[in-house]
Amino acid sequence: MGRTTLKDVGDHVGVSAKTVSNVVNGTGWVREDLKVRIREALVELGYRPNAAARQLRSGRSGMIAVALPDLSQPYFAELASELVAAAEDRSITVLINQTNGHADAERRISDGIGIPVMDGLILSPLALSADDLATRLDTTPIVLLGEHIGESPFPHVTVDNTAASQAATAHLIASGRRRIAAIGAQPSGPNETSELRLNGYRAALESVGIAVDERLICTVEEFHRGDGALAAERLIDSGVAFDAVFAFNDLLALGAMHTFSARGIRVPEDVAIVGFDDIEEGRFSTPSLTTVSPDKAAIARAALDLLADPSTSPIETIIPFQIMRRASA
Amino acid sequence: MGRTTLKDVGDHVGVSAKTVSNVVNGTGWVREDLKVRIREALVELGYRPNAAARQLRSGRSGMIAVALPDLSQPYFAELASELVAAAEDRSITVLINQTNGHADAERRISDGIGIPVMDGLILSPLALSADDLATRLDTTPIVLLGEHIGESPFPHVTVDNTAASQAATAHLIASGRRRIAAIGAQPSGPNETSELRLNGYRAALESVGIAVDERLICTVEEFHRGDGALAAERLIDSGVAFDAVFAFNDLLALGAMHTFSARGIRVPEDVAIVGFDDIEEGRFSTPSLTTVSPDKAAIARAALDLLADPSTSPIETIIPFQIMRRASA
DNA sequence: CACCAGCCGTTCAACGTTGAACGATCTTCG
DNA sequence: CGAAGATCGTTCAACGTTGAACGGCTGGTG
């Protein structure tokens, strides 16, 4: 009735379970003819290794956990997709968790509660800071993703958000825009993504001697399309003149673009827009979205490399980015 | 050095491991004062249950596997998000796999290879048919998602694709369109999604006495934005007149919309568009996308219900849909 | 006072797998 | 001819947990 075990196969062939194990794993010595018979029995009886027992015995699970804020956000979905693909190349199975950016969910994950013993954890924290994580209970290797990290005792993978934002803003400046709004500031709570991108924005303006007009800096609750749309509404209604928008992610940019379109504001003629993330969607929006493109596949590979690498010094891997010039700016 | 075990905690308090286990699980009898001391020790030593051992002993893992073609497609990402959320309500952990629609990946998953023994599997097959799955090795409960199913011996959750497509097409007809193109036919290989939606399209036209013009039926490789854009290009270049498009999913619709915009064709004035899936993106596209909206949260809940329900008769759950009327049609 | 029921906690074995240690046989070589 | 290796397979124990069975207490009941 139950699943076939090594012992079942061994009994069927007339050898010990361990010998079957040796054939399955290619360990030890087994005669060729016996190997053949055992392999036949393996197939005939439909043996599949019990991962739990294997893990209990060996300590390795062949699985890593990936914890992301929200899969319904394309950036994280695309990143997850890359991580799964990259892990598969290394025959690692990925277990994906959704934290919704909640601190308790992130802590539970980082403490390894409620999930099987993992060989590693890739966490993209929103709520938890490096200090919070320093006290975590679990000792499984961890790699952090994103920029909510600061001085982290853990290896992490990130893009240079300030530089990237500066480049994005500089691109708008280079195309002749002077009244550049920023959508994505988050005053409530120290959201490092938002801060760093805002810093880049300011730096770009200042480096060419444009004064930062605080009225052009729009705050948002979250980084979703709806927030971008709302921010754009408010910006228009405020009556402050602007000729470009740097949105701190693509969803905000697309939301804003939707508002502009509804309000009869032409993109890029009246307002140029640059986003951040390079999600697929921006390639097919109307108009297509100019954006900062971090190399997601490289992020995935780097994260897995850091997990695999036994040299546990806290390494920071900076992933390159490029500006994808499309129709919106 | 290693992780704290029940025995460690027991030794620390001066009781057996089993007594600690009783406290952790609320089983058996333990004096109140002892419970308190054990709980303190649990926290002090940072005990966390070993899922592998638990699973090996009890046979239950508290995890289900979800296998989807591709997370980078918003529909699947949003569905995965709903599944994870719905599973969390039932304190179930979800392990997400990506099959890329490959038959071998789908078979491996359905046979439970390479993944821990799962309490259940939710599979959205693209390549595998019901017959293929009938011979699967594994006996863990399975629920199928989507319409590539036919006469399935397994419980499955789906929307009435034909009816939904008919309703979508009818909506275009009701708004006065007569030359309605269909984007999403897939001649190569029996893709049931495509077939069913095409059937609904034909049925809607025929029911009002409009002859189906085969030149208006556009084939695509996959259901991605790029395929939709390409199909629209070809449709325009073919010179065949059309005033509306029913795209078999939102990505195709958005891709087509992108082409129309680039070619100076106005949506919905010149061409009305209806999609299928109701992904977030369509709410903020320019113009916003009218689409068939299956209730994704209901799909997630139904799938989990079917997994949990011990009555293993092959049940088909039909999920309701509605037409989301937005700007594109 | 004998017996039962409710408490409280223990020991034992088993889940399926694999590393370690140990035979046994057969070659090969000094 | 004896010893050292190579080859082939076995048994044993352990990973951490929990169901089953058991053994004492205490207090109440017939």
Automatic annotation (TrEMBL), chains A, B:
<keyword id="KW-0804">Transcription</keyword>
<dbReference type="InterPro" id="IPR028082">
    <property type="entry name" value="Peripla_BP_I"/>
</dbReference>
<dbReference type="Pfam" id="PF00356">
    <property type="entry name" value="LacI"/>
</dbReference>
<dbReference type="InterPro" id="IPR000843">
    <property type="entry name" value="HTH_LacI"/>
</dbReference>
<dbReference type="Pfam" id="PF13377">
    <property type="entry name" value="Peripla_BP_3"/>
</dbReference>
<keyword id="KW-0238">DNA-binding</keyword>
<dbReference type="InterPro" id="IPR010982">
    <property type="entry name" value="Lambda_DNA-bd_dom_sf"/>
</dbReference>
<protein>
    <submittedName>
        <fullName>LacI family transcriptional regulator</fullName>
    </submittedName>
</protein>
<feature type="domain" description="HTH lacI-type">
    <location>
        <begin position="4"/>
        <end position="58"/>
    </location>
</feature>
<keyword id="KW-0805">Transcription regulation</keyword>
<dbReference type="GO" id="GO:0000976">
    <property type="term" value="F:transcription cis-regulatory region binding"/>
</dbReference>
<dbReference type="GO" id="GO:0003700">
    <property type="term" value="F:DNA-binding transcription factor activity"/>
</dbReference>
<dbReference type="InterPro" id="IPR046335">
    <property type="entry name" value="LacI/GalR-like_sensor"/>
</dbReference>
